[in-house]
Fold these 4 entries.
Entry 1:
Amino acid sequence: MKPYLFLLFCCLSVSLFGQTAPDSTYRSDFTMEDVSFKSVGVTLAGTIFKPKVTYAALVLVHGSGQEKRMVGVASLLARNGIAVLTYDKRGVGKSGGVYAGPEVGTNNIDSLNLNLLGLDASAAVNALLAHMPANHGPLGLMGFSQAGWVIPLAAKNNSNVNFMVLFSGPVVTTLEQLRFQFYTEGKSNFWETHTEAEAREHTRNDPDRYQFTDTDPRDALIALSVRGLWLFGGKDVQIPVLLSIENLNVLKAQGKAYEYRLFPELAHNTAIPKSQEPISIAIKWIKTIIWVELIEK
């Protein structure tokens, strides 16, 4: 297996994103409905979580890996008045199609795969919309890690998307991310022995070990007119965070409604710290969109 095929971002914690059933204590706060929908010739399977009172709605988009439905985070969002569609990734669980990733010897960040996953997420948005009442509130996409490339592609393809929330989503090209990850080797103590300047130099200029069609999320982000929130960990060794923030600031200077929060002591898994501060901030941010939309109307 080629080394670049090992490009798999850190797995998200089972405690929040695992497949266990929601706590029965909270099941009265929302209902669950299994659904299926078509995307690029296959049928994808998922579950819609509907709160009693819905303020907003979103589709959860996977990080890398053989990811099934993210029941834990969907339950948390539903308890906070956010309707959710979470689905098994293409080729995983009950979803049809072919999964691409290092476990099966293929490249999960090839542009063909990322674009395909973007079309799947866009189809999921349409499926959720078909099951929601007219007054569902803003509709968006929330994702993790690899979704930093997938979500902008999906949002560009679907005018129904009003907002994006990305946990540790790269705002660099796939090749830049790969150079960075080769350099850090995923070592948790990387930032104790290296400087940002060294990492930046390597990420920008190191020769690429492999050749495949690159994906730059900024190509889609510059074309979008939706709101976006990125949540980063300062000790991330999977994506170059400060370079991603620099790129976001350029987009913000061009008038894009993109925001970010940096948590200096967190690493790549910004969605699952013990304090759950980032996910709480994300929920509050989504709810502010409702008021902004009301004011603008």
Note: The first strand starts at residue 30 and ends at 39.
Entry 2:
Amino acid sequence: MRKISVAHSPDADDIFMYYAIKFGWVTPKDTLFENIADDIESLNQATLNGVYDICAISFALYPFVKDDYALLKTAVSFGNGYGPKLVKKKETKLKKNFKVALSGEYTTNGLLFRIAYPDARITYMNFLDIEQAVIDGTVDAGVLIHESILNYDDSLEVEREIWDIWQELAGKDLPLPLGGMCLRRSIPLNYAIDYENTLIKAVHVANKNKKILSDMLLERNLIRVDASTLDKYLDLYANDDSISLSELQYDALDKLYELGYKHGFYNSLVKSREFLIPSEYEELRNK
């Protein structure tokens, strides 16, 4: 039996979308998926170094790994009217060169922030430490991500929504691309198609059985939030729009990569549809 490493973050949406496989509800054909959980920027760095066969990444990372990894169509997270938040202490005014904590160099929120605030002094840290760093005054502000956007200290207030930055830069109403998954290109195509189909089915099954799966995750202490927060978070980032990329989501990805290229972060202009696994091969193979 083949063994394939599948890395995802320990965040509620990633765990929810993957654990239909972990619990045995969906089984890859003749393959054992070995899952690894790590924070998203660590996964971005690991993908740059080719560590895992299948890996969750920030969408902003993908142009840097496109030659070695194909973009998967499933297990995606987009914001739609919401997303990461730039927070500061209440009743404070940020200077032009304010010191800010971001969760990683290759995160989507990091890319959009750097475009919007070119003079800010950036320090990178684990996203779990950002809120406290702002409270302690280690930094003037910080971008909160994941579950942190739902519950943060009363001493803090939102300076700006990354969603608003995205809408201004995009120039039209598009969902905010946050995270997805990629697969190593050296994996034979027929296997790659099977693996992607397995993940698509897992996300579909998870969404169809949301209450059961959520209860199982909570009972096993696999989630770091309570039931109410989990429901809110999954409604935002693990839902029917996570099962398979839509045309609107492809357009949003292309706009993100266009912005990154325009502002000098990428060396070439990436069109997301050109970097997918050619799943049509399966239809031709079966004829």
Note: The chain has two domains: 2-78+177-286, 85-170.
Entry 3:
Amino acid sequence: MQNTLAKEALKQFRIIFGTVRQPFREIEVSCGISGSQLWLLHEIATHPELGVSRLAENLAIHQSTCSLLVEKLVKKQLVQKQRQSEDQRKVGLIVTDAGHAVLAKAPKPVDGILPQVLHTLDIEALKELNASLNMVITKLDAQSKALADQPLGDM
């Protein structure tokens, strides 16, 4: 019985992982950037002049990961850095015309299907899911916890 349930759980993880990865592949083909870069681009377009620290916080990723993704977008001329109008010491991010063109042709949802689905679950279901996933994670290699701050599209 335990073996059968373990295999069923493994199959469910495969379904989730495969379902989550497919849209990221489509984004790379249609937009020429990674799913993570598209998510950042969308967040920057939604919140003009957002700084890297706040952007990382909004996306629940590590700040250094966010900085690397931002630099890739700047290099591709999809995002520009500019001094914020109210505080010249702070640098904000804005989407360029080329960045808006990428967003216009991007498949939806830009932040990925999993965050969208998780937001549809009620609080009790999320608590149960988090508790169950925590049990699985504690059985895994402790180093894998660092992956919590990585965007799904980069995995």
Note: The helical segments are 2-31, 35-46, 52-59, 63-75, 97-105, 113-118, 123-139.
Entry 4:
Amino acid sequence: MGPWSVDTLLLCFGGGIVGAALGGLFSFGICGLIVLAGCFVVLNGGSEFLLMQVGLGSLFGPHTGGFAAGVAAVAYAAGVKKNLVSGSGKDILSPLIGTSWDVLLVGGVFAVIGHVLLQLLVKIPFVNSADCIALSVVGTACLARLLFLKEMPWGKAASIQSHGLLGTDKGALSWVPWMAQPSRLIVFSFGVGLLSAAMAMGTKSVLDPMVVQGTVSATGAFVVPLIFAWGIAAISLFGLQLGTGEVQKLPVWHCQAILAALAFLLFNSLIVAALVGVLAGLLQELVARVMWNHGSTHIDPPAGAIAIGTLLLNLAAKGFGG
């Protein structure tokens, strides 16, 4: 199926309805499961369909049903229908099956929008050096905030005036407050960088000979090391979804994972990957303070940081002749 075929758009729409019904974060965890399963298939010389077309593609990718649909639908439920029990447009944990049929349809429509936006972004020079899936996730979230809450990407002016653009009101506004302390964030992100780079190194060593043998494409051999730790990090967020109180205080680390893996693939250095992991964690927190803290809906800090970080790493690699 081509990206503009009626079948593809219908499948996007259906995946978006399901993703909205499940809720943003739960659908993202399922996306992570699909991605990791797809990685295992490719590592065993199998088809790339599950990884590229389902987990990262139109069927249930993060930019369609695997996250973005739920983010847009909850913004609509909170801002327009006002039938969400929590009442918060940032509530990506609650399943939306108990809201109304039109909330689910919004999820389907925004999955199609996310797919279309991705097809356009990858055609734009310079912009396509960023992670365009992540950029699409941010784009549809900004659109939902504007349409359903009448807010700009940076959020409410009154909150910014009261607390400052980068202010957190002593953590009360923070996205993931138990991660926000710089010393804790830096140490954790350094560890993630090393772990992700090690996984990228190991999977690359398996896949490179398979490319020579013709059993795996060059694209698959690049994407699997890039996304492997990201998939594990996405699955780990089921703990955030299902836990309460102290048990819920899990780190959110798929941003650090994918950017550290990309750094390893571009520069072939564990220490560079670890340092990029640290910078990714800090960039993620910066995006949260600029686009999440003062808003009434969820604009995903990891997706924003992944889009920006990928662009910067690719530009740096070109600058160094990588």
Note: The longest helix spans residues 182-213.
